[in-house]
Amino acid sequence: MTRVIHTGDTHVGYQQYHSPVRRQDFLDAFGAVVDDAVDDDVDAVVHAGDLFHDRRPELPDLMGTIAVLRRLADAGIPFLAVVGNHESTRGGQWLDLFERLGLATRLGDAPTVVGDVAFYGLDHVPVSRRDDLKYDFEPHDADYAALVAHGLFEPFAHADWDTETVLAESDVDFDAMLLGDNHTPDSAEVAGTWVTYPGSTERASASEREGRGYNLVSFDEASVGGDDRVEIRRRALDTREFVFVSVELGPDEGEARVRERVREHDLADAVVLVEITGEGDPVTPAAVEEFADAEGALVARVTDRRTVETDEEFNVSFADPEAAVRERIAEMGLSAAGLDVDDAVRSDSIADANVRETVKNRVEERLDDPSAFAAADDAEGESDAENTGREEASGGDGDPEKASERDPIDDDATEADTADEGSADERSADDDATDDENDRSDRSTPADGQVSMEDYL
Predict the structure, then answer these.
(1) End-to-end alpha-carbon separation of the chain, Å?
(2) 163-179: per-residue pLDDT in tens?
(3) What is the Cα–Cα distance from 276 to 308, expressed in whole angstroms?
(4) Cβ-contact 401, 206 below 8 angstroms
(5) Which residue, 150, 236, 336, 373, is most buried by CB atoms nearer than 10 A?
(6) pLDDT tens digits, residue range 311-333?
(7) Is 86 a catalytic residue?
């Protein structure tokens, strides 16, 4: 029997809510997975991509990750991994550096055999390039085979990758597909093969309400009948407490009622997310956040979902200026190219240093299509589905925290991660933008001082 921990979407280096403590939480969660692997003496840790939140992780994040991987190496447990869309670069990958240091194995089309299982890898590939993929894998002589991949695969939410095609066109018959990219854990059987997501190891967006964890996957021969068997078990991680407070205000109720509801919870060292709906008096989000901070919260964020009538012909949510911007953009009748530019400039998933290059590339891609530069009123216009896709790419309901499961990540996210359905809400549309931008970004040193792997080497 071979037992492995299947994890992914650790997003080390993500300073969620601009909090250094939250940044450390993401590294600590990855460390907790490795500690469990050592304690349980598993045969390997398999990481399905997005080890880092950004393609240019800062030195403390790199050093912290190396320290965690050394604990695994000292225990004689191999770390097998693929590259996700958040960390992908045009040249060498950080995973290559770890492999050179003897701390990891980057999976690919050749088998890496651990116990009686041959592991293969498929890095994240943008949707635009998948038609050219050849699922050619070298043969193996192990009892089982598993494909580790990063992407949104069917039959799960926000899927854009046909799992049956991968299985049918592959040279190898896989017993399991161990996936990453969707922050919601789930498993299904497709064409006789088990397909599973472990979910993220920390909450990368406000939509990820369920507890975090990873999978323990066992490849074993059933005691009855001698049939091959893959067993997938979910394990929980003890991560930062999130407190979700929903307040529906009645007539004449206001900030005092919101504080009363917040006070009902234990806020000590927790991330506190307050959502206000209903009627009632105006509430100042900053005042409630300050109150929660005083009650011991690590971070507090308040979203007022109510709307008020204005002298204009549209409504503006108290805490949702992005919704107002999207509405105004829709009224301007911008061309498809103009909408591309707007999306790049305002997207939470594109680093400031990369906006210029992203805009340039998106416009160049449209040059062969004159209609892309025609105003919406002059062209046939975009379909409702396209408009919806753009809205999701901007965060859907305007909640900056939902920029996570865009890929599946939040306010700063390449948040390439999804709404509560996991790394994909914010993901479907956002991830494609992130993937293409990952592909095209230049490798010069950004203004924030972060440097590439080649600079470290």
Answers:
(1) 39
(2) 999 999 999 999 999 99
(3) 13
(4) yes
(5) 150
(6) 555 454 545 566 667 777 777 77
(7) yes
Cis peptide before 155 (omega within 30 of 0): yes
Determine which one of 6, 11, 53, 86 is catalytic: 86
For residue 25, the surrounding DSSP H or E stretch is helix 20-40
Radius of gyration of the chain (CA): 23
Q: How far apart, in whole angstroms, are the C-alpha atoms of residue 256 and residue 249?
A: 10
Distance CA 242, CA 199 (A): 17
Q: Tell me the mean pLDDT in the region 385-390.
A: 38
% the chain with pLDDT above 70:
75
| 236, β-bridge pairs | 213
Instruction: Specify the DSSP element, H or E, that contains 194.
Output: strand 193-197
Q: 3-state class of 265 per DSSP?
A: coil
DSSP 100-149: HTTS-EE--SS-EEETTEEEEEE----GGGGGG---------SSEEEEEE
Separation CA 65–CA 431 (nearest Å): 24
Q: Residue 133: which of 147, 112, 119 has the closest Cα?
A: 147
Q: Which two tokens stand for residue 213?
A: 């964890």
Q: What is the pLDDT of residues 9-39, one digit of tens each?
A: 999 999 999 999 999 999 999 999 999 999 9
Residue 233's closest CA among 438, 1, 4? Answer: 4
The 10 Å Cβ neighbour count of residue 1 is 12
Q: What is the pTM of this model?
A: 0.70
388-443 tens-digit pLDDT: 333 333 333 333 333 334 444 443 333 333 333 334 433 433 443 344 444 333 33
Distance, CA of 324 to CA of 6 (rounded, Å): 41
332/338 Cα distance (integer angstroms) = 10
